[in-house]
Design a protein that fits this description.
alpha+beta; two-stranded antiparallel ribbon; 7 helices; 15 strands
């Protein structure tokens, strides 16, 4: 990232985001220079834009409240996302731009309140996958590299050598987020929809206020990606890009940072929400992967989602050979800690080796 681009990024983020803090940790000398360049830009009367070409103003309904500049709907996406994004735009055009809701229309929006849980599928990304996970009968058509990595993962698991980033108290990440078995909520508002899982309080934010994706020059891989959407009647259509490298679920294939998805989410019955998902990954998939997930309403008396801390009950360590070891009551395990690369430390050694060209 050049000093000019970084200064524009800093001007738009007066309180450094996670991406900014990560960059600060990697390139400390540039940060103060970027702050100085930003100050000069602002003192000269220049206003920071959401991208280099155009911007979109996201405004609250409160009279006199300030607006926030965001990427314009026309903001282009990176080459690896163009096929899925074209499908998203086509759906939006067919929906005549989608239904635009305001606070005054809130009562007209779909009511997805309550708590929900995944209905079937276990830990399979595609609930329709036949057999047990250990049999490796994924319905995804993988590229040779990702197919080999998948088979190696299953071999390692069969030898009782498995590590999951959840044991580092890290997020599941998206699209794996779709498969997690814990409780979840769908919080619908006119400008955005939050989808939150009980596990790690991991939230996806789908912006439906008309903004576009974060420009390629400012984007970086995120655990839950960058999601924008629109309402097609009672269906929420979501396009997601900029995800972190991960696995679809334990004993499932991996996906790359080039992954993007297109979802159509709707209530199909009073107690059922359906998520029709298509995944594109030019590095990991030979062709788009289509799956359908369903979430059932939880009606157990007193059910609710409480915030919980993974670290407060984390008695798992990664061994020298990369496997998982549980620390039992009365046991003591010595753990050596060294610098952890924030972009790769959560990967297994096998993942780092197989995907070195993608994660470095």
């Amino acid at each position: 990232m050049s000093l000019n681009r970084l200064s524009r990024f800093v001007c738009r983020n007066t309180r450094p985001s996670g991406a900014a803090r990560t960059y600060l940790g990697q390139r400390p000398p540039l940060w103060p220079l970027a702050l100085a360049a930003c100050a000069l830009q602002m003192s000269a009367g220049a206003q920071p834009a959401a991208n280099d070409t155009d911007s979109f103003k996201s405004c609250p309904s409160v009279q006199g409240a300030g607006c926030t500049q965001q990427p314009a709907a026309s903001t282009p996406v990176a080459a690896q996302y163009k096929e899925s994004y074209a499908a998203f735009v086509e759906m939006k055009n067919k929906a005549h731009g989608g239904t635009v809701y305001t606070r005054a229309d809130y009562a007209k929006m779909p009511d997805w309140s309550g708590t929900w849980t995944r209905a079937g599928g276990g830990l399979k990304f595609d609930p329709a996958q036949p057999g047990n996970l250990s049999e490796g009968k994924t319905t995804a058509v993988l590229t040779p590299k990702y197919e080999a990595a998948y088979r190696e993962k299953l071999r390692q698991v069969a030898n009782q050598n498995e590590w999951d980033q959840l044991s580092d108290c890290l997020p599941a990440g998206y699209p794996r987020w779709l498969t997690e078995p814990f409780l979840r909520e769908f919080i619908v508002t006119p400008q955005e929809t939050w989808m939150i899982t009980e596990q790690q309080s991991e939230a996806r934010r789908v912006y439906t206020d008309g903004r576009g994706h974060v420009p390629e020059s400012d984007a970086k891989p995120l655990w839950t990606g960058d999601s924008i959407g629109f309402w097609d009647g009672d269906t929420l259509v979501v396009h997601t890009i900029s995800v972190q490298h991960g696995q679809y679920q334990r004993q499932n294939p991996d996906y790359s940072q080039a992954t993007s998805t297109l979802e159509r989410i709707r209530m199909t019955a009073p107690n059922m929400i359906e998520d029709d998902v298509t995944v594109w990954d030019p590095k990991g998939l030979k062709q788009p992967w289509h799956v359908v997930d369903r979430y059932a309403r939880v009606t157990t008396p007193g059910s609710r989602i409480d915030m919980w801390s993974c670290e407060s009950n984390n008695n798992v360590v990664r061994t020298a050979d990369g496997s998982t070891q549980f620390v039992l009551p009365g046991e003591t395990v010595e753990v050596k800690r060294s610098y952890r690369d924030p972009d790769t430390f959560f990967l297994t050694e096998a993942q780092k080796k197989l995907f070195e060209d993608e994660t470095n």
